[in-house]
Amino acid sequence: MALHLSLDFVFGVLANIISAMVCLAPLPTFYQICKKKTSEGFQSIPYVIALFSAMLWLFYAIFDEDSTLLITINSFTFFMETGYLTVYLIYATKKDRMFTTKLILFFNIFGFGMIAILTLFLTHGRKRVDVLGWICMIFALCVFVAPMGIMRKVIKTKSVEFMPFSLSFFLTLTAVMWFFYGFLKKDLYVAIPNTLGFLFGIVQMVLYLIYRNPKKLPVEDPKLRELSEHIVDVAKLSATLCSEITTVVVPQPIDNGNDVGGQKIKEETEQDIGTPADKV
Predict the structure, then answer these.
(1) What percent of the chain has pLDDT above 70?
(2) Burial degree of 143 (CB within 10 A; 0-12, 13-18, 19+)
């Protein structure tokens, strides 16, 4: 029994440490936002969802017995995501600020408020913990399913540009730690969704190994080159900074004097030397 409790605590502490590292990953991004005083087109959706998830798990852990490690990491996540969103709202454009405000009102105010009110007034004791556990588990499963969009893009484009290996590795490692924590603690609401998170993480890393060295085909059409440079995945959540896209000017070849420049030169030449009729 002592060994069981010891392993429970060890996996919980490891899960806290790794989850905190993942939570701190966007710091360089927000440092650049503060430095440049612009959100640079970054999306706020991942941070709103992360804040909502932390609020749900924190609310669940308050009523569950011996869930101190859940309280610590979700409290930390709550404050970090609140800080990220505050910085985003300060430097975002008016349109992005309004969109983010609506998301916060929908998820973090209205959504969480309804869940809190209904569970507090309609449930009691262990039943309240079970209801909150099911809500947290279903939401966590939905979040873990979200990377399917990224995996589909990797398979379609045969490129891992938008799925960094380090992020997939740490997310998988986090899911493993939380699974064993929930399993040893006999908390199925924590263990079950992290099983899916572990499986999706393994698939992501396998896809990375398959497509890490894509065959680069020459792009002759400037329009196709420009389109390929502007592909941006809004679901990407990592510390990788968006690089600036430079515009490449490709000179158009002269088509036997039929282009605008050639036509203009031809007309000026005819005006200078005159036509055969003028010479007669």
Answers:
(1) 73
(2) middle
pTM of the model: 0.70
In a domain, 279, yes or no: no
For residue 22, the enclosing domain spans 7-212
Among 96, 110, 55, 43, which Cα is nearest to 79's? 55
In a domain, 235, yes or no: no
Position 179: which residue type? F
Residue 241 has pLDDT above 50, yes or no: no
189/215 Cα distance (integer angstroms): 43
Q: Is 102 helix (H, G, I), strand (E, B) or coil?
A: helix
Report how far apart, in Å, the C-alpha atoms of 41 and of each of 33, 150, 227 are. 10, 19, 17
Amino acid letter, residue 149: G
Helix axes 165-184 and 188-211, enclosed angle (nearest 10): 160
